[in-house]
Design brief:
There is one protein chain. The protein is of the alpha+beta class. Helices cover 19% and strands 41% of the residues. The strands form three sheets. Strands 1, 5, 6, 8, 10, 11, 14 and 16 form an eight-stranded mixed beta sheet that branches. It has a five-stranded antiparallel beta sheet with strand order 2-3-4-7-15, with no helix packed on it. Strands 9-13-12 form a three-stranded antiparallel beta sheet, with no helix packed on it. The radius of gyration is 23 Å and the shape is globular.
Length: 227
């Protein structure tokens, strides 16, 4: 009778293992942020760079690149959820002013799963400023005052975008993207953004799952033979 109960419980144990091993990790991962290398000011203008080995381009209104500013400090304003590290202080962002009818587009040579975007100094006192992401699903995962201008976190604006009054933070898009399009309809002196890719964990958890299931299957065969 005890053997029968154990045999019945093995599928449940296997399912529990699947749930535990397959569940997404709650810990923050290392983000590979874009290293921007060239930019052309204009409306539209452009910028190019890389995210690791993945080429990234931007087309839309831009006032050029910010290569050593902002500092992206304090890092707590730009880390949270799956984002474990703030953007670097070098080759770090595209500067924009908004207030045009341009459609801005970020394009990845290789599609990125759940890409992230860091936003710095969006809007100013008495002049809230917006990113409109055209109904793309996203989540704000970090926010807070910056070391340069203080301010506060970016917040959601309707269902399509974010708004800031000296707003800072990071958003994560939900899905696999070859490109991200948005508009910045409100003019503000300048603000900045960059993009990155959250590192994909090594497939060790899948190997562990396979090993666990094989062990359970072997145990069940031995118990069946004994019964």
């Amino acid at each position: 009778m005890a053997i029968h109960r154990l045999l019945v419980s093995i599928p449940a144990a296997a399912l529990a293992l699947c749930v535990v091993v397959g569940a997404p990790s709650a810990r923050a991962e290392t983000v590979t942020w874009a290293a921007w290398s060239a930019g052309v000011s204009g409306s539209p203008g452009s910028a190019t760079g890389t995210i690791g080995a993945n080429a990234v381009t931007y087309s839309g209104q831009t006032s050029g690149l910010l290569l050593d500013y902002p500092s992206w400090n304090p890092s707590s304003s730009y880390t949270g959820g799956p984002v474990g590290n703030a953007p670097p202080a070098a080759n770090n962002s595209v500067m924009i002013e908004g207030g045009t009818t341009d459609t801005e587009t970020i394009t990845f040579a290789t599609p990125i799963v759940d890409p992230v975007m860091a936003i710095w100094s969006l809007g100013q006192s008495g002049d809230p400023t917006y990113f409109d992401f055209n109904s793309e699903p996203f989540t704000i995962v970090a926010g807070g005052p910056s070391s340069e201008y203080g301010g506060s976190t970016i917040t959601t604006s309707g269902s399509d975008g974010v708004v800031g009054v000296e707003g800072n933070g990071v958003i994560q898009f939900d899905g696999t993207y070859s490109s991200i399009t948005f508009t910045t309809p409100s003019y503000e002196y300048y603000y900045a953004f960059t993009v990155g890719s959250v590192a994909t964990p090594e497939p060790g958890s899948l190997a562990l799952l396979g090993t666990g299931l094989m062990a359970l299957a072997g145990l069940r065969r031995k118990l069946s033979m004994r019964g």
